[in-house]
Each structure stands twice: as structure tokens, then as C-alpha cells.
Amino acid sequence: MELKNETSIMKSVVVLLAAGCLCAGCSTKEHLDARGVIRLGVENATRASINNVSDLATHAGDKVGIIGMETDSQTPAAGVWNGALIMDNVQTSGIDADGTIHWAGTYYYPMEADHFVKFCAYHPYAASGTSGDSFVAMPTAGQAPVLHFVLDGQEDVMYAGPVVGSSKVAPDKLTFKHVLTQLTFELEDPDGEFTGATLEGITFQDVNTRSSMDIETGALGAWSEPKSVDMPGIASVPFAAKDAKQPIDGEIMLQPGLPEFLITVRTSVGTFTDVKITPTQNSDGSAAATFGAEQSYRISLRFAKKTLISLGATVQPWQFGGTGSGVIE
């Protein structure tokens, strides 16, 4: 999806998802429909590597997990997970370009008219478990399923749900929401001092990489394991002409809610450490104290006289936007 401007709100993307592996033929389809075959839909696949239907098909076709729990209410209380799991952390097997989703097997709604299924979905898929770098702790009576994950800066983390359906009532479309903050970069050399030089790398210093996410609400748990994380995709990016802006391909997704990030900038003529990036203003003009979830920031690296880099951040929004700034001495 093309961004019209840096502060525009991302338009909704409707993605029709249907259960895969159904046999061909009208009589078979009618028979399965009569038994209450589960079908789901998803909308608002917003800004990130997963930005629209094509991105879902390309990047997340086999990386979405779906959990469906039987319930006797069409409006079940949040956090109540005491029913049978109809879809027990089912991994998708592929998503077509038109948004149709596939998974192994066929799943059915309960036959009772007053029984429903509450669905939640998440990305990236992880197997059920109790330990490791990436796993889903399955629900208990008082706790929704929880995704435990380790960030590498390249993987988006999203959740969708809950929606409720039955053999008689179709569920609403799932709405995926991002829980991380995203940053992209561009180079500026207003004095022409870096002509012929290249950007060799950007490293985020001591960023937390381990956390967890409630799959029903998207609430994040405690963060830990600070590490240095490299901005992906940078390999000798040449500086643009004087006063021109040179976009850097790729993006990085990190812990939201922080007032600043420290980065190291490596160029062919020198390395700049402890560069502080801070947010300053949201797209609506209000002051920004932290880098927000679901927001994408364009960080402009401004080099001057080979001794100073001043940084400004504008926004390529997922759903919201803001600005920020920073200075390298």
C-alpha cells in the first residue's frame, strides 16, 4: 500500500480468510457448510513488513497462529479461557494473493445453537510449550494464551481478536494490530562533506529483546535480555548528492514505550557512538514522550562538517504518527 504522506492514517485492508483443504464440488461444499465449517476473515493488516494482502501472502502465509475456544456466550468475558479448544494453536499453511487462508484439516463449530467459538490470532506463529526463545503458553481458566518471543529487529509482532462465531452466526473479521514500534532511516549531507562516503551500518545499543504478549489483548509483559541489534539490510549505502535525502531500505521493529534509543552509526570515514534518538511530537501536534506502539518513525541522519550529525524523525505511520530528533556530538 502506497503511503500518500507521512502523517496519513493507513487505510484498512480487507483480507478474506477461508478454511483451506476443502474438497471440490458443490455437493461436498454444501455438506460441509451444513456442518458448520469454520471460516474467518481479517482486516487492518497495517504498516510493517505486513502491510497489505500481498505482504500477508508473501511474508506471513505460514506464520499466523489461530486459537479458538468453545464458549456458551456470544459475548464472553475477556480473560475467560475455560472452554474446550476447537482450534488448538493452529498454524496457517499459506495465504493466497486474494487473502484466502489455508490450514491443514477442517474445523467445525459446535452443533448446539447456543454454543460459540471465540477466536484469537497472532503473528509470528510459535509452537505450544513452556520454555524456549519462542513459544505459546496455552490458556488456563484465568489467563489467555501468551506468546513468548525474542526480537531480532526484523519480525513484526501482532495480535487479532477476539471475535466470536457459531454454526449460525458468522464472526466479525479479525483485526490485526501491531504491538512494536518501527523505525526507518534516510541520510542527509547538506554540506556535501560526505561525497563518495558510504554508510556501513547502524546498531541499536542495549535494546531489550525478550518479552511476551497476551494474544487476546496484545498486552506486553516484562522486557529483558538487552543486546546490540543491527539495523537489517545495510551494506555500503552511498551518500546522496548535497541537500538530497537518501532513503535506506528496510525497517527495524523494537520495544515500544521508550523515551529514547541509543545507536552507533558506522560510515566509511568514521564511527559515531551513543547517538540519542528521542521522540518530540505526534502527528496531531501533541507532545510525544515515548516511541509508541503501532507508529513508524523515519529517522533522518543529518551529517555536517564530518563532526556532527543532527537527527530528525518524521513518520511513515502504521496507524499513527509522530516526529523525533537527536544529535551526535
Molecular structure report:
The protein is mainly β. It is 5% helix and 44% strand. The chain contains 2 helices and 20 strands. Strands 7, 8, 11, 12, 13, 14, 15, 16, 17, 18, 19 and 20 form a 12-stranded mixed β-sheet that branches. Strands 1-2-10-9-6-3-4-5 form an 8-stranded mixed β-sheet. A hairpin with an 8-residue loop joins strand 7 and strand 8 (146-150). It is elongated. The model is unreliable at 1-34, 44-48 and 319-329 (pLDDT under 50).
The gist of it:
The protein has 329 residues and is mainly beta. 5% of the residues lie in helices and 44% in strands.
Question: Could you give the count of β-strands?
Answer: 20
Shape, please?
elongated
Helicity range: under 10%
Estimate the strand proportion.
35-45%
Structural class by secondary-structure content: mainly beta
The H-and-E topology, N to C, reads as: EHEHEEEEEEEEEEEEEEEEEE
